[in-house]
Amino acid sequence: MSAAAGHGASVRIENCGKTFTDGTRALEPATLDIARGETLVLLGPSGCGKTTMLRIIAGLELPDPGGLVLFDDKDMTSVPIERRNVGMVFQSYALFPNMSVADNIGYGLKIRGMANEERTKRVAELVALTNISGLENRRIDQLSGGQRQRVALARAVAIRPGILLLDEPLTALDAALRERLRGELNRLLRALGITTIYVTHDQAEAMELGDRIVVMQKGTIAQIGNPRDIYFAPKNRFVAEFIGAANIIESPIEHGHLVLPGGRQPIGGDASFGAAVAMIRPETIRIVEAASAPLSGTIDSVSFIGDRQRMVVSGAAGKPLTVDAPNTVKAEVGDRVGLLIAPDAVRLLPPEK
Ligand code: ATP
To answer: How many whole angstroms separate alpha carbon 86 and alpha carbon 193?
Structure first.
């Protein structure tokens, strides 16, 4: 495991846009730096240009003229994929179905001419690292989806790439397995220290795996930041609503308060007058006695969602507010309740265009 550590290369894409021959503008010119060993997640809805950006980094696609791709400050823009030292894993595993697990993992090493003995050793290391011990001699078509994905990962990192590119690698798996593999993948990436670029439309995956997340919207970068920044300080309404649940309310501001139908909610920061679009995450709202909060409303619905309950409160903010409360909170439909929200939990967003 340690032998593979610290192999990460830095990546810079500079002014990389992409217009396909049919005129589709998949990517507006973007500039992005990825540090050695960093895991960067490209997150966004279908068609926003994530895969196009990944394919430009891989060397499967050329950027429009003027775009540059640099690895460790070296210009790689027109270097073909096989000479970029990248490992790739896709949603579809692209393994050889009737070859054994061990032969699949060792394939890249074999075509690079690595001697048998060394190859066997490397494959054994990777089998252990990706938790597939005992399956070495099975054929791929005798494996489960989760096992195949582990083999695909082991094969991608076998060549000790400087950069690992993953395109929705867990999407084909069921929810429980996805969650488990996410945790495993996280540990694996830390252990290997490879620079990783990970494409997903799943925000939970992005949060858990990303050192930083790039949120993409219609071919542009909407925001880059660490998971906490993206979640708590989204730059605009698109990012706020794409990541987690968000209450978005429009309101006048007076003396540092939102002036709402259900009361006056203090806000952080220095906005004292004007009008705002404000975002409040459902779990930052506390349900209290009606008299003990500046803002109050009426419970419209309560639904139990396992580790917490989701309530909808009307009459407080001009539109129904979603509130996620611990299961210990006792409140019923029709109850008049107070809503306690810390001023800093109210995030002001730029006005809508
Ligand atoms: P998804 O999550 O659905 O894979 P994505 O964010 O990865 O989406 P891309 O695959 O990068 O999106 O596609 C971005 C846009 O470019 C889409 O509108 C897509 O239809 C278009 N596109 C992708 N490849 C080509 C191509 N070879 N020729 C023309 N248009 C393309």
So the answer is: 14
206/197 Cα distance (integer angstroms): 11
Q: Is 338 in the pocket of ligand 1 (CB under 6 A)?
A: no
112/160 Cα distance (integer angstroms) = 12
Q: Read off the CATH number of the domain in which 81 is found.
A: 3.40.50.300
Count of Cβ atoms closer than 10 Å to residue 65 Cβ? 7
Q: 18, 22, 48: which to mutate for ligand 1, most atoms within 8 A of CB?
A: 48
Nearest-CA residue for atom 15 of ligand 1? 26
ipTM (interface pTM)? 0.93
Of 222, 239, 256, which one is at a domain's C-terminal end? 239
End-to-end C-alpha distance for the chain, whole angstroms: 51
pTM (two decimals): 0.89
Q: How do residues 190-239 score in pLDDT, each as one tens digit?
A: 888 899 999 999 999 999 999 999 999 999 999 999 999 999 999 999 99
Closest atom of ligand 1 relative to the 48 alpha carbon: 6
Residues 218 and 90 in one domain: yes
Q: Is 196 in the pocket of ligand 1 (CB under 6 A)?
A: no
What residues make up the domain containing 80?
A: 2-239
Contact of 124 with 133, CB cutoff 8 Å: no
Whether the Cβ atoms of residue 203 and residue 238 lie closer than 8 Å to each other: no
Contact 24 CB / ligand 1 (< 6 Å): yes
Q: Would you say 105 and 154 are in contact if contact means Cβ atoms under 8 Å apart?
A: yes
